[in-house]
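Journal club side-thread
Mid-discussion, someone asked how the predicted structure for our own chain would compare to the paper's figures. Pasting it here so we can look after the session.
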Amino acid sequence: MAEQSLKQPQAPAANTGALNRILNLIEKVGNKLPDPAILFALLLAVVWLTSWAMSGMVFTEIDPRSGQAIQVKNLLAPTALTDFTSRMVNTFVTFPPLGVVLVAMLGLGVAEYTGFINAGLRKILSVTPLRLLTPVLVAVGVLSHVAVDAGYVLVIPLGAVIFYAAGRHPLAGISAAFFGVSGGFSATFFLPSSLDPLLAGLTQVAARLSSDPAAASIVINPLNNYYFTTASLFLVVVVGWFLTDKVIEPRLKKTAVVDADPADLPKVDELQPQERKGLRWAGIAMVASLALLVWSIVPEGSAWRAPDTREITQASAPLMQSIVPLIFIFFLIPGVVYGYVAGTAKNHRDIVKGMSHAMSGMGYYVVMAFFCAQFIFAFGQSNLGALLAIKGALWLKEMAFPMGVTLAGIVFLTATVNLFVGSASAKWALIGSVMVPMLMELGVSPDFTQAAYRVGDSSTNIITPLLPYFPLIIVFCRKYVQSTGIGTLIALMLPYSVAMLVCWTAFLLGFWALDIPLGVGSTYTYPAAN
């Protein structure tokens, strides 16, 4: 019955309450912004003009990458403009999210076209209590971090399908999944992700910049935040569960009518015998593929392991670098098997048709990705992001706040910078080079500083239009509510962002107050150089 009410919506009811009025205002203002593709183009022009205006200014802050005073680069200079145009094609085709999305969608397209995903979700729904859909979806979003950025193209669209199929609002499913994947990016589902060794490596480099002679040989364990990030899983799930069911979805039912063509929306019917048979054989194929992969990983000399350390989860390990192709394979194989067994795919042409169908829906994203890539490249080249990060970190040092206030300041500084600089590793390479040695002088360990950074980095991922995957989430939303814009998505995710910024910061400070270990080989304090 709930499903019918979504398919045949009535006019939204009046939405009252202070929080709803604020979110409605944010949505209204945000939706008046230009189309995301044009917005990125306008932001590119702003970066050009700002870089020109600030290029003549002299700054005393030291850029840790060069060891010299930081300087804003004039992007309107003839050499900068010719460099920009000569790199334009390469900037676009090497834009990381573009390849991740398109390759993953090829496999997902086959699995969706043949009906494997739809049948699988219907099976899951038949055995999962409806009241547990939200926490399970958020937890799966957190689990997807093991597969780096794959959760954006895998879990988030499936969240909409699951919620819609269960008679709930599909945008609530998208928001819950987006929160788990991106808002809970620094939480872990008992398994470390490739981000752990990546950040730890950058932290170690930054720690060795300290004036303390002992810091020259400091070693940071890749699992230095593991206990904290694992415990954070439960915080993320609880916050996501409460907000989705009590705040987000009730508001959506009043403000966002599902107006897509019902023929294009997922349907939930009882599984037919041929579908059950197809699911059974597709499941066998998926398990066999996974077993083969595990068998090839286990040997110490496996080619999947990092060449130098033989670790599996290290960022340089071929396994970590092959996550997206593996997702393509692990959905292609069961998708093909299901299609042939269930009779939804007759020959190889149907498989290619499934891939083509998936790509046909990505045209809008490709256009936005082009402008997004150009803007991010120009912003990085200008040094404006680096200047913002370094000035903020130095200001924090000058204030000489108490330890708890300083760590909270790191969280909020990172959260602010995250609105302008999307890459977690690039941001930490800049901020960490200043913050880690600076706070070591104040007696704060690199492990603690890194944990504070991770909290701030995750909390505002979900509200910045500069997140490379933000345009893709809008595409997913428009499949159900065609009027979705930037403001709609920001209004959806803002309650999650604010709640996590406050709760997660308090959670970290609680770890510190109770002296609970942050991770393997980690500490909270460091002997000050002076």
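Post-session note: Residues 1-14 have pLDDT under 50 and may be disordered.
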